[in-house]
């Protein structure tokens, strides 16, 4: 039997995958392995994967090809996560040297590889929430703790592969989420970020018939003295209930920043996406948020070049980007994904048109971001230390709006929460100085 001493893990994609990667590492360390950043030294190599976009899947297989050439002969390697679920047994055909393929709800079975290294392992079943019961609690938590509160999604947007790779929506028991949150607070967390593909749709009814929602999780978490900041991602517009909106007005630990993807400004395109197509209703939610929390800022996700998107449809997307003034958004060209309805739609848009539209949208979004960053100059903000920059001469903080703020490294040790005066800004980041 192969004696495993070191493991290497590379994580792709969303913050849910970041959490999964942290828990995989904790699980393997409990089994006596040590993490390494050098793939050539590893006895066990894991790619923790994302398949939301075609480019992300291609990136995974490109990395697998490099690892196949670089790893030592005795090392075992495989993929976990959404690409594993999407590819299934075909992954073994594409990369014959793979030893395991585990879906996003099956990575807790990795210890079977340690016990039986000569056996190929394939498990892409969409189970329930069993993995959360199987995984050990973290003994040391980064300052930002990602806490999943639900898996999967029921909204079934026509472009989205998540219902196939992550399954239908399941909310974790309230007490389990709070146990993870309390453990994170006791082991180093300062900020809690609640995660879910439809995070603000969290609903759990306990054995006494009591219903718990995301607002309840925020309220209880805010009582923990170790926790100074709370946020959540990703949000679905119609799940922004009044009780959750109200939390932004009454709970100061809840950051004044919300990612609420609109995807398109065109009602016609949104209807084809199976998204909420009442743009006025979306704007009403934004106005409600700004009423209870005037300093709140919104970010979004956008897809350009969705099947049958016309020039007029795209202009409506530009219009909502101008109207809402999103401060930090993610925009992508539509890419057909397997198992989705949109992949079979007529009137697929050419790559050339997608590229032109994406460039125009990014120009508007960059203008919004630069304008907001510039407006922050002179302000004082309580920011969370993220770590040193690559030079070691500066420290990187995150503002309450999740902007990167670069500060000259002080000579003495400092606490992770600091009041910083913003002194300069560009599109990508801020500069600041610590107020002593």
CATH class of the largest domain: Alpha Beta
What's the β-strand tally? Answer: 22
The DSSP helix count reads: 14
CATH architectural grouping of the largest domain: Alpha-Beta Horseshoe
Largest pleated sheet = 6 strands, parallel
Question: Can you give the helix content as a percent range?
Answer: 25-40%
Mean pLDDT: 92
State the low-pLDDT regions, or none. Answer: none
Q: Specify the structural class.
A: alpha/beta
Alpha carbon gap, first and last residue: 58 Å
Q: What number of structural domains do the residues give?
A: 3
How would you sum up this structure in a few lines?
By secondary structure, the chain is of the alpha/beta class. The protein is built from 14 helices and 22 strands. Helix content is 34%, strand content 22%.
Keywords:
436 residues; alpha/beta; Rossmann fold; pyruvate-formate lyase- activating enzyme; OB fold (Dihydrolipoamide Acetyltransferase, E2P); 3 domains; 6-stranded parallel sheet; 5-stranded mixed barrel; 34% helix; 22% strand; globular
Folded structure, characterized:
- The structure is a single chain.
- The chain has about 425 residues and is of the alpha/beta class.
- It has three domains: about 5-125, Rossmann fold; about 130-375, pyruvate-formate lyase- activating enzyme (Alpha-Beta Horseshoe); about 380-435, Beta Barrel (OB fold (Dihydrolipoamide Acetyltransferase, E2P)).
- Helix content is about 35%, strand content about 20%.
- The chain has helices spanning about 15-30, 55-70, 80-85, 90-95, 110-115, 130-135, 160-165, 175-185, 215-220, 240-250, 265-275, 280-290, 310-325, 350-375; strands at about 5-10, 35, 45-50, 75-80, 100, 120-125, 145-150, 150, 170, 190-195, 205, 210-215, 230-235, 255-260, 295-300, 300-305, 330-335, 380-390, 395-400, 405-410, 415-425, 430-435.
- It has a six-stranded parallel β-sheet, with helices on both faces. Strands 18-19-20-22-21 form a five-stranded mixed barrel. It has a three-stranded parallel β-sheet with strand order 7-10-13, with helices on both faces.
- The longest helix is centred in the last third of the chain and has 25 residues, at about 350-375.
- The chain is globular and about 60 Å long.
């Amino acid at each position: 039997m192969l004696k495993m001493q070191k493991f290497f893990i590379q994580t792709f994609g969303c913050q849910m995958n970041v959490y999964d990667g942290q828990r995989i590492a904790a699980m393997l360390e409990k089994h006596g392995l040590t993490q390494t950043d050098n793939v050539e030294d590893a006895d066990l190599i894991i790619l923790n994967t994302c398949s939301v976009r075609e480019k992300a899947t291609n990136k995974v297989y490109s990395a697998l090809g490099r690892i196949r050439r670089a790893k030592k002969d005795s090392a075992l390697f495989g993929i976990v996560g959404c690409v594993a679920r999407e590819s299934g047994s075909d992954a073994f055909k594409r990369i014959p040297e793979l030893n395991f393929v585990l879906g996003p709800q099956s990575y807790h079975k990795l210890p079977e590889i340690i016990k039986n290294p000569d056996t190929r392992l394939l498990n892409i079943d969409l189970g329930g929430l069993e993995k959360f019961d199987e995984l050990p609690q973290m003994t040391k938590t980064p300052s930002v703790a990602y806490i999943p509160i639900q898996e999967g999604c029921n909204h079934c947007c026509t472009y989205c592969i998540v219902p196939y790779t992550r399954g239908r929506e399941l909310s974790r028991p309230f007490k389990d989420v709070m146990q993870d949150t309390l453990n994170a607070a006791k082991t180093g967390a300062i900020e809690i970020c609640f995660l879910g593909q439809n995070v603000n749709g969290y609903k759990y009814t306990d054995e006494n018939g009591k219903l718990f929602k995301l607002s309840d999780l925020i309220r209880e978490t805010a009582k923990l003295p170790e926790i100074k900041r709370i946020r959540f991602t990703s949000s679905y517009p119609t799940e922004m209930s009044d009780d959750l909106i109200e939390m932004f007005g009454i709970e100061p630990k809840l950051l004044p920043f919300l990612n609420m993807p609109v995807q398109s400004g065109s009602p016609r395109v949104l209807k084809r996406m199976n998204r909420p197509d009442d743009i006025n209703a979306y704007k009403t939610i934004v106005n409600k948020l700004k009423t209870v929390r005037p300093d709140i800022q919104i970010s979004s996700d956008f897809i350009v070049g969705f099947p049958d998107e016309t020039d007029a449809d795209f202009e409506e997307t530009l219009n909502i980007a101008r109207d809402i003034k999103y401060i930090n958004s993610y925009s992508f060209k539509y890419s057909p994904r397997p198992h989705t309805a949109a992949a079979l739609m007529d009137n697929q848009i050419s790559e050339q048109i997608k590229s032109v539209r994406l460039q125009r949208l990014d120009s508007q979004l960059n203008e919004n971001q630069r304008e907001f960053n510039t407006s922050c100059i002179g302000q004082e903000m309580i920011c969370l230390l993220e770590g040193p920059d690559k030079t070691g001469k500066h420290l990187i903080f995150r503002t309450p709006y999740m902007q990167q703020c670069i500060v000259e490294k002080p000579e003495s040790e400092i606490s992770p929460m600091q009041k910083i005066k913003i002194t300069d800004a560009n599109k990508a980041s801020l500069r600041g100085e610590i107020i002593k």
